[in-house]
Each structure stands twice: as structure tokens, then as C-alpha cells.
Amino acid sequence: MKKIYLALLLIAGIYSNAQITAGLHDGYWLEDMPVGSYVKDTNNELDPFAGKWVWTNGDEKVIFKLQKVVHYLFPCGSYQDFMIGNYSYTKDNGFTTVVNTINQVLSLDPELHPMSAIGAENNSKIKFTFQDIALNKKSCWAYFEFLPGSTTQMTVKFENPEIMGVVVDPNNPPPPYNYGFTIPQGIILTKQ
């Protein structure tokens, strides 16, 4: 009887410390999973979006560098695959830099980059959180979507955050919200 009890105790101990490997869309929140678990890009859905994407129009140029991060350890003790992104926008054939976040942070921590995404919405579209650094706008969205039948060209569109329940002091109102973006809307990017 003692051996059976020890065997059951051993099995219970193994299962109570079980780690989980789940796909990006399996419905798990990293913080709710056991330490050491892994939310993995099991279908490699992030791969087509990774790379250097460029738009040029006359003397203007926009570059997005989108990078897949694999098996990143978060402070909660579990791992996750995701995307980070950086961008630059220049005018006057590169002589005027409007904004540039490329090569400024070596860390893969998504909090240190102006763009991050957990998973693609489908095979042709991914939604990033987006910070417009030049306008000091946070919590925006950037939607990258492949052109029909293409894996080398996609559009990018930006969306402002929904602002609800903001209390404004009538004696000290904030400056008017800028609904525009530094980077032109709806541009077509080509993979380099």
C-alpha cells in the first residue's frame, strides 16, 4: 500500500509541474500558464511578415524592419514567439530624417520597440501595436496586409486607439488630439 501511495504522489507531482506548449491561437494567456510553458508559432504564421519592407515615392522613403522573436523568456517565467518592428521615414533623398527607430535597441523585449504583434490575423494580415514616435502617440495599430496573390508586397494602414471615458479638466484642457500619422497611410511596401 505504501508503494502505491508513493507512486500516486510521484505521478501527481509530475503532473502538477507540467509545462504546456500551445499555439499562438490556442486561447492561452502566457501569464496564466505554468512556469516554463511556451506559446509557440507552431504553424510558422509569422515568418512571411518578417524582413525588411520598403516604400519609395520620389524623394520619400519608408522602411519597416519586422523581426520574428522565438522562445523569448518573459518575467512570468514562460516563453512566447512574437514579432517586433522598427521603422524609419526619410525625405529629401535621405537628407531629412522624420523618424528612425531602426538599430536603436538591441534587446528583443517587445516593450522597448515601437511595434509588436503576437500572431497573424490570417495568412495575409497581421496587426501590430504601433507607437508614432514623432507624434508621441502610443497604443495605435498598424495593419500589414499582403496584396492578393503576393508574398512580396503588402499595404500598411494605421489606426488610432479608441479613447473612452477620458476625464478632462476644463481649466487645463490637453492639446487637441492629432488623428494623423507621421508615416503616409495606405502605402504599398515591397520586401527587400
What's this entry about, in short?
8% of the residues lie in helices and 42% in strands.
Description:
This protein has 192 residues and is mostly beta strands. The chain has one domain. Helix content is 8%, strand content 42%. The chain contains one helix and twelve strands; from the N terminus they run αββββββββββββ. An eight-stranded antiparallel barrel has the order 3-4-5-7-9-10-11-12. The longest helix has 15 residues. The chain is globular, with a radius of gyration of 22 Å. The chain starts with a helix and ends with a strand. About 6% of the residues have low confidence. InterPro entries: DUF6705 (IPR046551). This is DUF6705 domain-containing protein. Keywords: Signal.
Shape: globular
End-to-end gap: 68 Å
Number of strands: 12
Indicate the low-confidence ranges by residue numbers.
Answer: 5-16
Order of helix and strand elements from N to C terminus: HEEEEEEEEEEEE
The Cα radius of gyration reads: 22 Å
- Total discrete domains: 1
Mean pLDDT: 88
InterPro entries: DUF6705 (IPR046551)
Protein name: DUF6705 domain-containing protein
Organism: Flavobacterium pallidum
Keywords: Signal
Helix and strand layout, with pairings?
Elements (H helix, E strand, L loop, with lengths): L1 H15 L4 E3 L14 E3 L10 E7 L2 E14 L5 E13 L4 E5 L14 E3 L2 E3 L2 E8 L4 E10 L6 E7 L27 E5 L1
Parallel strand pairs: 1-2, 2-5
Antiparallel strand pairs: 3-4, 3-12, 4-5, 5-6, 5-7, 7-9, 8-9, 9-10, 10-11, 11-12
For this entry, give a set of tags.
192 residues; mainly beta; eight-stranded antiparallel β-barrel; DUF6705
